[in-house]
């Protein structure tokens, strides 16, 4: 696997560059509306909105906001401070450098990783008996791996209208009745809760990059997995319109804003 990964990434960059130069990103008005309440995006732009979705403020059942205990708030705020500094002093400079890569190439790289992580969404949908969503994910995997050149492109969505289904093991635990218990902020990973933190273990098991369930001589080392994960994260942020910075500018207490939005968003996804 690790021998093929650089080839796929290189192919993503090459094919996307051949597809044409990246479009210049016009300045976006700070007050322009968007789905998550952040800055607007270019019409027709299909970049991955996972980062923004994490902060969308979906109300709970019957429109009532969901509250989750935060007994570790002093510790959580410490990790929030750490992640904030990590973003501005490490991730943001890395993202600026990464944006040298043409946008079509970065989108292809995003598509590749999304296709690669299909087992997480597929397995989570099956465990919740969402057979239609599981079928959609399986169809997307087949179409994008073949017609989409190893997942570099997304013809399943563009030509067949098959939207990606966001499912993970944290949602599985919620489906079976486990509550969020309490809110936590994880270093490097950001906002979470006890249920979703436990769900990360399930996601890791179903993640093809880990290969913990198939022992072969091609298994990625811990360092290689960290590098691949970091590339994926930086690439995703390079396609984001600085949602986090907008939240910091417009919030009196960004910690509370992000906590509340994360809680509502996760509960909304579990009820879908």
What report would you give on this structure?
- The protein is an all-alpha fold.
- It has one domain (70-271).
- The chain has twelve helices and two strands, in the order ααααααααββαααα.
- A two-stranded antiparallel ribbon has the order 1-2.
- Helix 1 runs antiparallel to helix 4, helix 5 (118-127) packs antiparallel against helix 6 and helix 8 (169-175) crosses helix 9 (194-206).
- It starts with a helix and ends with a helix.
Query: Biggest sheet, in brief?
Result: 2 strands, antiparallel
What is the total tally of β strands?
2
Q: Write down the secondary-structure element order.
A: HHHHHHHHEEHHHH
Give the helix tally. Answer: 12
Summed over residues and divided by their number, the pLDDT gives a mean of: 81
Low-confidence stretches: 1-44
Number of domains: 1
What proportion of the residues is helical, as a percent range?
Answer: 55-70%
Structural features:
3% strand; disordered N terminus; 272 residues
Give a short overview.
By secondary structure, the chain is mainly alpha-helical. It has helices at residues 5-19, 50-53, 73-98, 103-116, 118-127, 131-146, 155-160, 169-175, 194-206, 222-238, 243-250, 254-271, and strands at residues 183-186, 190-193.
Topology:
Elements (H helix, E strand, L loop, with lengths): L4 H15 L30 H4 L19 H26 L4 H14 L1 H10 L3 H16 L8 H6 L8 H7 L7 E4 L3 E4 H13 L15 H17 L4 H8 L3 H18 L1
Helix pairs in contact: 1-4, 3-10, 4-10, 5-6, 8-9, 8-12
